[in-house]
Fold each of these.
Amino acid sequence: MAYDRITRVNEVLKREISEWFEKNLASEIKALVTFTKVETSADLQHAKVFVSIFGGEAQETEAFELLEQHRPSIQKQVAKRVKLKFTPVLQFEPDHTPEEADHVLKIIEETEADNHES
């Protein structure tokens, strides 16, 4: 039962954070930013927000700095819109999974192209 609640809370937090970002910060960042998942602690006190940023290292650094700078505003929005006893403290973490998957796909495509040439 608790697992289902945490799963729902994670999805609601991800949605609210994404909406806030699109309305308030997306135009300031010159990269594609995606909130991939949220992992909330069992006591709902903390939440890791995984962020995938498509761009260079400079864009990733800039995006994380802006997210951290605006974290209080994001948490305030979450507190208003998501009715929980406690509003979890948000912690933004990089998620490089999409980039790694893209790299693996490129290797597979190159291998297949080499095999067809042989």
Note: The mean pLDDT is 87.
Amino acid sequence: MVLARWSAIKQVHAHEYATRFIFGGICTALAGLIASHWGPGVGGLFLAFPAIFPASACLIESHQKEHKRKIGRDGTGRGREAAALDAVGASLAAIALASFAAVVWLLVPRYNSAGVIALATVVWAGVSPVMWLLWKRRPRKPRTSSARLRDRGRALPS
């Protein structure tokens, strides 16, 4: 189940928001430079890059490591796992966003823009949960006990 924890907003420090803002601004500026050199079609592809994702993934990993460090444990595996889950969410969202863009690209030249945007939004809102459900129901390879122990930073008894 997807949950929103509003209390998590209080746990984010101002410098973390600044990091995301700066990284997003750099990505946007680079997309503008690419667009000025190779045209808006190519620049738009780079602008669609989830600009704050890399910064967010790093921050998520460091939060998990810090949380585990406070209780005296190594949080490296947990940090990687949390960042990986964030990457999955970003990938699924990118697929939904691509469906939105495809609808707009195909229909805007022929139909009313407002109607096309509304339809694209409905498509995006439909594709997003479908992608999430497909990911949740994917076949999973069972993890061995040695992999679980290794991820926790423990060695197997010999």
Note: The mean pLDDT is 80.
Amino acid sequence: MLILQTGREGFTFIEVLIVIIIIGIVSSLIIPSFGLTLSGIEDRLVREKTINLFKQARAEAITDRNKQKIRISDNKVYYQFSKGEELIIKDGIKRIETRGISKNEIIYYPDGTCSGGEIIFILQNNNDFLIRLNKIYGTAEVEFL
């Protein structure tokens, strides 16, 4: 027995074209927000790495009972761990400015204090933040500018 189907199967060219246009419009609205999100993630990564570095240097100064130095040069942050390996923070940083920091070195002492000062980080996307180093407690506090 032969069955004849009435109606149509598939989509017309116009229907497919309309769906493609809708997808394009939605994509053009969503994709730029991903760029902003990635930029925010990179900013947060630089801040977190830097703050963790200051915490690490303070902890090593206390546990090893030796001074620890963090050096700022050529818009990079340098730290040499007690075991000899060096950490350099440079990605995402456009410029670093220091205030109240002698010889561009932050020194952490075995009693947990530090030499103090302020560091302004200007990032590649022109966002910036300040790290304020408390001399007495050796803590690093972040302030968004």
Note: The first helix runs from residue 13 to 64.
Amino acid sequence: MMNNIKSKSYISVFIFISAFFLFTSTTFAATEVYFTKEISQIKKGDTFSVDLKISSEKKINVVDGVITYDKNKLEIKKVDKTNSILLLWVMEPVFDNKKGELSLIGGVPNGYSDKNGQILRITFLAKNDGETVLGFKDIFSILANDGLGTNISAWFEPMHINIEKKQANYLYNYILGIILIVLSAIILIKKRNDK
């Protein structure tokens, strides 16, 4: 009898723990906002693009927030919303390179729930070398398509970027130097022969 009660208790605890982890994992994975970029190596002086994307199992209606970046390392050159899932813009994307911030408020008629939804493409200039992070201000929020504007508990994933020093092309300069020396020698020899 006692063993039977113990085994039922263990089963109950196991079910409870399994349900807890299943619930929490699906809750945290339900909506994610993140960055992607096509190139892996970025050097000082390079211009490169980063896509702001969203994946959501829940139907979202509004994206409202501020992206942050290091103004000493990065400068926004252009923001493109051509392929954005957001079709209604309460506030067009606005960036301030003095503050290192990009603000936006956009909506999706009838909602959106899918993977890798494009929000914006941001083109940056890598001003200085070093490690830097693209992130989100705390006020960044995703609202559900439920007619109530319910705030969805989303996972915001920053992007770490390493900007490398611009390497001088010593080989190019060396070859160019040799060519100039050879040309100078040819010109001198020709002048001597002409005399």
Note: Residues 10-29 have pLDDT under 50 and may be disordered.
